[in-house]
Design a protein that fits this description.
single chain; alpha/beta; five-stranded parallel beta sheet; 8 helices; 31% helix; binds adenosine-5'-triphosphate
Length: 245
C-alpha cells in the first residue's frame, strides 16, 4: 500500500514564486517565496529599495503580482485591492511606515478607526469597539475627535495600528511600522501587536531595518535575498544585515 501523505497545516500567509513591481520588463520582486505559519511572527530585513514594501503590499492584496501565487490560510488570493473578496481582504491588516500618507486627513481618529467597520457593514456597536481599541493602543479618548494634523506621528500611528486590528485580521503586516517612532512608542506598539497575537493567534510579517528589534520581536528573521527562488525553511536564521536606508 502506498504511503499516505498527511497535509500539514496551511500557512497563514504564503507567497509562491511571486514576481511583481511597477514595470513588467524590470520587476522589483523576481520569483520570491515566503511562508508565515499560523501564529508565527516573521521579521523581514533587506537593503533599502530591494522590494520589502512591495512584498508587504502584495501580501496585503494591495498590489497585483505579474506572476506567482499569494495564499491566505491555504486559499489562493482571488483578487486585488477592491476586487479582492471581502473575506480575503479583511483577513490581512496592514500598517505602513508613514501614518500621514496612510490616514485620510479629513477624518477624525474615531472615524479613521471605524472606517473598516463601516466599509464592511459591521455598523453595530461601532462606538464601543472604537473605544475598546483606542484604549488598547493607548489613545486617550480626548484624541479621538481630532484629525491627523492635530496629533503627533506616534499618536497617529497608534490610530493606524488600531485601524489595522479593528476587523481582527488573521495576518498582520507591519511595514516599518516603528521606523519614525521613538523607543518608548516603538515598545508600546510592539506590545500592542503581541497582545493582539497572543489573544487571536494571528500571524505577523514585520518588515524593518532594525535587526535587533526584529530578532527580539519575531520567531525568526529572514533576509530578503534568501526569499528569491526558493522558500525559506522555518528556523533558518538570516545572515547579518547591512544597515541601509
Ligand atoms: N509606485 C512605484 N512606482 C514605481 N516604482 C516604485 C514604486 N514604488 C516603489 N518603486 C520602486 O521599487 C523598488 C522597491 O521599492 P520598495 O519600496 O518596495 O523597497 P523597500 O525595500 O521597501 O525600500 P525601503 O527599505 O527604502 O523602504 C525601488 O526601486 C522603488 O524605487
Amino acid at each position: 500500500m502506498g504511503e499516505r501523505t498527511v497535509p500539514g497545516p496551511a500557512a497563514a500567509l504564503e507567497l509562491r514564486g511571486v514576481t511583481a513591481g511597477y514595470d513588467r520588463r524590470a520587476p522589483v520582486l523576481r520569483d520570491v517565496s515566503l511562508a508565515v505559519g499560523a501564529g508565527e511572527a516573521v521579521g523581514l530585513l533587506g537593503p533599502s529599495g530591494c522590494g520589502k514594501s512591495t512584498l508587504a503590499r502584495v501580501s496585503a492584496l494591495l498590489h497585483r503580482p505579474y506572476a506567482g501565487t499569494v495564499l491566505l490560510g491555504g486559499e489562493e488570493a482571488r483578487g486585488w485591492r477592491h476586487r479582492a473578496p471581502r473575506a480575503q481582504r479583511t483577513a490581512v491588516g496592514v500598517v505602513f511606515q508613514q501614518p500621514r500618507l496612510a490616514a485620510d486627513p479629513r477624518l477624525t481618529l474615531a472615524a479613521l478607526l471605524a472606517e473598516p467597520l463601516r466599509a464592511t457593514g459591521r455598523t453595530d456597536g461601532i462606538p464601543a469597539r472604537t473605544a475598546e481599541l483606542a484604549e488598547e493602543v493607548g489613545l486617550g479618548p480626548e484624541l479621538l475627535g481630532r484629525r491627523p494634523h492635530e496629533v503627533s506621528d506616534g499618536q497617529l500611528q497608534r490610530a493606524c495600528l488600531a485601524r489595522a486590528l479593528v476587523l481582527r485580521p488573521r495576518v498582520l503586516v507591519c511595514d516599518e511600522m516603528t521606523a519614525m517612532l521613538d523607543a518608548s512608542t516603538t515598545a508600546a506598539l510592539v506590545a500592542v501587536v503581541e497582545r493582539y497575537r497572543a489573544g487571536s493567534g494571528a500571524a505577523l510579517l514585520a518588515v524593518g531595518h532594525d535587526r535587533v528589534l526584529l530578532d527580539r520581536w519575531c520567531d525568526r528573521t529572514v533576509h530578503y535575498a534568501d526569499l528569491v527562488s526558493g522558500a525559506v525553511t522555518p528556523g533558518r536564521r538570516a545572515p547579518a544585515d547591512t544597515p541601509a536606508g
